[in-house]
Design goal:
The protein is an alpha+beta fold. It has 16 helices and eleven strands. It has three domains: about 120 residues, no CATH class; about 110 residues, Orthogonal Bundle (Transferase(Phosphotransferase), domain 1); about 90 residues, no CATH class.
Length: about 425
C-alpha cells in the first residue's frame, strides 16, 4: 500500500470514527455526564476491529478496570457480517499467488463464521483433505494502525471519567493489546502455534488430544488453511453421553494435556470456552483456535507452582504466603487480611453457573469473582501480569467443565488429574 493510499484510508477511517463518536459525545455533553458502560460498549462495537479487541481486553482485565465496565464489556461481541465471496476469493488468490481452483477442489462460498479480523470457510484441498480456511478481511491492518492513535485518546478519556484507574497498567495493557492485534493479523504466527502444540503432543506421547494440522502450501500471512476436525463442543448434550464416549474421561485428558502444556510447551491455550474444546467422533479431544495464547516467564513458574499447591490444599493462609513470596505484593502486607480476602474470592467459585460460564455469557458470578481479584490486587499493591489472569480464567473454565461432565470431582483433589507441573 502506498503512503498516499494509506493516508487516504487513514483519513477516511478518522472520519468514520468521528461520525460514530460525535452523536454519543454530544448526548453526554448535553446531559452533562460521562458515557455509561453500555454506551461505551455499543460505541466500541460500532467502531469495529480495534475497539472490539480493546473492549474484550477491558472485559478480561478486572484488576485494572471498574466492575461496571468489566461487566458490560463481557457483552462486547466480535461478530460481524461476512464479506461477499468475490472479495474473499481475491484476497486468497493475491496472497497465495495461485487461483482458488489450483489450491482447492471445493470451496464453500458461505462463511462458517465471521469476526472483525477474519472469516472462516469450509473447503477441500486438491489433494483431498477437508479443511477450514481462515481469511483476513481487507484493510484490517491499516485500520488497526490508524485506530491505535485514537486508542491513546481513549486512555485520556478513561483518565478523565475514571480518575482512580491505574494509568500505568492501562498504558501497559494498550501496548500489549496492540502487539496482540498485530500478531493476530499474522497468520504465520497462529500456524506456528499450531505446529508447536502438535509437536508437544507428539513428543509427550499424547494420543488422546489433537490440534488441527496447518497446511503451509495453502497458507500465508492472510490465509490460514487447517485440518477440519469433526465433533461437538465438549459441554453440549451429545458430549454428555449420546456420542458413545465417556465425556468425563475426555475432559480429564484435556485437562491433563493443558496442565502439561504449561511447562512443556512454549505457551498455553488461553481461550478454552466451549467451542474451542471439541469431543471428536473418535473420542479424542480437539483443541482449536490458537489465536489467543499465554506465555509466562520460566523463572515465575516455581512461585506459581507453590501457589497452585496451596490452592490444591485449600490452605488460604499458605496461599497468602505464596503470593507474598512470589514478589507481586507490596513489601509490607497484612497477611491475615490477605488470607481473608483470598478465602472470600474462592468462596465465590461455588456460586458460578457452569453452563453460562462455558458459553462465555455474562454472569454476575464470574465477573464478580474476577472483579474481587482486582479489588485484592488494588488493596495489596498486587499487579498480576495479564497472562496470569488468563491462566486463572482457564482454571475457572475447567472447574465448570468438571461440574457439568464429572460432577463431584475436584480439579485439585481428583486422582485422575495430573496436577504436577513437570
Amino acid at each position: 500500500m502506498s503512503l498516499a493510499e494509506f493516508g487516504l484510508r487513514g483519513s477516511w477511517r478518522v472520519l468514520q470514527t468521528a461520525s460514530a463518536v460525535s452523536p454519543r459525545a454530544l448526548k453526554c455533553l448535553l446531559r452533562r455526564r460521562k458515557p455509561s458502560p453500555r454506551e461505551l460498549r455499543e460505541l466500541f462495537e460500532d467502531l469495529g476491529a480495534t475497539y472490539i479487541k480493546f473492549g474484550q481486553f477491558i472485559a478480561s482485565s478486572p484488576s485494572i478496570f471498574p466492575k461496571e465496565y468489566v461487566d458490560e464489556f463481557q457483552l462486547c461481541l466480535d461478530q460481524t457480517p461476512s464479506l461477499p465471496f468475490n472479495k474473499i476469493k481475491q484476497i486468497i488468490e493475491d496472497d497465495l499467488g495461485q487461483s482458488i481452483a489450483e489450491v482447492f477442489a471445493h470451496f464453500d462460498e458461505n462463511a462458517l463464521a465471521s469476526a472483525s479480523i477474519a472469516q472462516v470457510h469450509a473447503a477441500r484441498l486438491v489433494t483431498g483433505e477437508d479443511v477450514v480456511v481462515k481469511v483476513q478481511k481487507p484493510g484490517v491492518q491499516a485500520i488497526l494502525t490508524t485506530d491505535m492513535n485514537a486508542v491513546y485518546l481513549c486512555i485520556r478519556l478513561f483518565e478523565l471519567i475514571l480518575p482512580n484507574t491505574d494509568k500505568d497498567a492501562v498504558a501497559g495493557l494498550v501496548e500489549e493489546m496492540y502487539q496482540s492485534m498485530i500478531d493476530e493479523c499474522d497468520f504465520y504466527k497462529e500456524a506456528d502455534n499450531l505446529t508447536q502444540f502438535r509437536t508437544f503432543l507428539l513428543q509427550s506421547g499424547n494420543s488422546h488430544v489433537v490440534a488441527p494440522k496447518p497446511y503451509s502450501q495453502a497458507s500465508s500471512r492472510k490465509v490460514l488453511t487447517m485440518e477440519r476436525l469433526y465433533g461437538t463442543a465438549l459441554n453440549n448434550d451429545m458430549a454428555k453421553g449420546e456420542a458413545g464416549f465417556d465425556p468425563a474421561n475426555s475432559l480429564f485428558n484435556a485437562l491433563n494435556t493443558w496442565f502439561a502444556s504449561l511447562t512443556q510447551c512454549a505457551f498455553f491455550h488461553a481461550d478454552l470456552h466451549s467451542g474451542n474444546l471439541l469431543l471428536l467422533n473418535d473420542g479424542k479431544v480437539g483443541f482449536i483456535d490458537f489465536g489467543m495464547v499465554g506465555r509466562i516467564q520460566p523463572e515465575a513458574w516455581q512461585a506459581i507452582f507453590s501457589l497452585f499447591m496451596a490452592i490444591s490444599e485449600q490452605n488460604y493462609e499458605l496461599m497468602a504466603q505464596s503470593m507474598i513470596s512470589v514478589g507481586i505484593t507490596r513489601e509490607v502486607v497484612d497477611e491475615a487480611a490477605l488470607t481473608r480476602d483470598i478465602r472470600n474470592l474462592f468462596d465465590g467459585l461455588n456460586a458460578l453457573d457452569p453452563q453460562t460460564v462455558l458459553e462465555n455469557k455474562q454472569t454476575d458470578g464470574i465477573t464478580s469473582l474476577l472483579s474481587e481479584l482486582g479489588d485484592i490486587a488494588r488493596t495489596y499493591g498486587i499487579r498480576f501480569p495479564r497472562a496470569f489472569t488468563m491462566l486463572l480464567k482457564q482454571f475457572l473454565y475447567f472447574d465448570r467443565y468438571m461440574e457439568l461432565l464429572a460432577p463431584g470431582a475436584d480439579i485439585f483433589q481428583d486422582d485422575r488429574v495430573d496436577f504436577y507441573l513437570h
